[in-house]
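About this split. The held-out portion is used to measure sequence recovery: a designer receives only the C-alpha cells and must propose an amino acid at every position. Recovery is the fraction of positions where the proposal matches the reference. Here is one held-out target exactly as it appears in the evaluation file.
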C-alpha cells in the first residue's frame, strides 16, 4: 500500500533520484565519461616521446674546379651527335633529355636546380651558369654579425 502511494506521489514513476539511477546504469554521467576519456588521451600524449626537429639541411655549395669539362662531357653523353658546334649553345627543349641532364648533375654535385628555376634552364650555358655559382648557407643577419661593423653598431642575438 505504501508503494502504491509512493508511485502516486512521483507521478507513476519509480522515484529513484539521479544518484541511484547513475549507479544503476553504470555509475557515471556522459560528461564525467568524456572528462575521463580526455584525461586518458592527454596522459597518453604526455607519455609518448616527443619528436625532435632535425637540424636544418645545409645548402652550401661550392662549384668544383673542373665544372666546365664535367658539364661538357655530360651534355655530349646525353645529347649525342645532335650537338651544335659550341656545346654551350645546346638547347634544352626536349624535357626528357633536360631531366636526364639535370638529374645526373644533381646526383653528381649534390646540388639540384630548384623548381622555381627550372624554366630558366633553356640551354647548356644556363646550366653551366647555375652550377658555377657558389651558394652560402647563412642569413643576412649572420653575415652582418661576422662583418666588420662600425664601433657604434652591434648585433647581438638573444638566446
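Reference sequence for scoring:
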Amino acid at each position: 500500500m505504501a508503494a502504491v502511494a509512493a508511485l502516486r506521489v512521483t507521478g507513476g514513476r519509480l522515484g529513484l533520484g539521479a544518484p541511484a539511477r547513475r549507479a544503476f546504469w553504470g555509475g557515471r554521467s556522459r560528461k564525467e565519461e568524456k572528462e575521463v576519456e580526455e584525461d586518458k588521451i592527454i596522459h597518453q600524449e604526455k607519455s609518448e616521446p616527443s619528436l625532435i626537429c632535425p637540424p636544418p639541411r645545409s645548402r652550401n655549395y661550392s662549384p668544383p674546379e673542373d665544372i666546365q669539362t664535367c658539364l661538357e662531357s655530360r651534355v655530349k653523353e646525353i645529347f649525342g651527335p645532335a650537338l651544335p658546334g659550341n656545346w654551350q649553345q645546346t638547347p634544352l627543349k626536349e624535357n626528357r633529355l633536360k631531366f636526364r641532364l639535370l638529374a645526373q648533375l644533381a646526383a653528381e654535385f649534390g646540388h639540384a636546380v630548384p623548381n622555381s628555376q627550372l624554366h630558366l634552364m633553356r640551354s647548356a650555358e644556363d646550366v653551366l651558369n647555375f652550377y658555377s655559382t657558389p651558394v652560402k648557407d647563412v642569413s643576412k643577419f649572420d653575415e652582418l654579425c661576422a662583418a666588420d661593423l662600425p664601433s657604434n653598431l652591434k648585433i647581438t642575438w638573444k638566446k
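Annotator remark: The chain has a mean pLDDT of 76.
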